[in-house]
Amino acid sequence: MKSKILIGIFAISAIVICITAFSDLQGKWSGVFNIEGNAIDLSYNFKIDGTKLSGNVASPQGVLPLYDGKTNGADLSFTVDVNGAPIKSVGKYYADGDSIILNTDFNGANIHTKLGRAK
Q1: Is it the case that residue 4 has pLDDT exceeding 50?
Q2: CATH number for 40
Q3: Half-sphere exposure of 105 (CA within 13 A, CB side)
Q4: Domain range spanning residue 105?
Q5: What is the pLDDT of residues 28-70, one digit of tens each?
Q6: What SS3 string covers the chain?
Q7: Are strands 27-35 and 109-117 parallel, antiparallel or unpaired?
Q8: What burial letters (b/e) apply to 96-113, b meaning 16+ CB within 10 Å?
C-alpha cells in the first residue's frame, strides 16, 4: 500500500516539474549567434502546447517561424528554414540561471549560443 502511494506521489511530482519547465521556457529570449567572426543578434519567441514548441526567431534579416519544435522537460529542439536550408537547433533550459543553451548545426558547424530572457 505504501509503495502505491509513493509511486503516485512521484508520478504527480514528475508531471508538475515538467509543466513548470514548459511554462518557464515559454516567452521571449535573446542572444548572439556567432558564425565565422560575425555576431548576429537573435530574438526568439517560444510558445509551448504540451510537448510541442512553436514560435519564431527574429534577426536583422527578418522573422522566421520555428517548425518541428519539441520539448521534453528542460530539453528542446526545433528547425528554422533559412533560404531553403533547414537549420536544426537542440538545447536545454536552465531554470537556476534562467537561460537556454542552444547548439545549432549551421552548414556543418556546431554553433553554441546562450540565450537570456528578453527584457
Answers
A1: no
A2: 2.40.128.120
A3: 9
A4: 2-117
A5: 999 998 888 889 999 999 999 999 999 999 998 899 999 999 9
A6: CHHHHHHHHHHHHHHHHHHHHHHHHCEEEEEEEEECCEEEEEEEEEEEECCEEEEEEEECCEEEEEEEEEEECCEEEEEEEECCEEEEEEEEEECCCCEEEEEEEECCEEEEEEEEECC
A7: antiparallel
A8: eeebbebebeeeeeebeb
Is pLDDT at 9 greater than 70 in this prediction?
Answer: no
* pTM across the whole model: 0.77
How many domains does the chain fold into? Answer: 1
**Residue type for position 16:** V
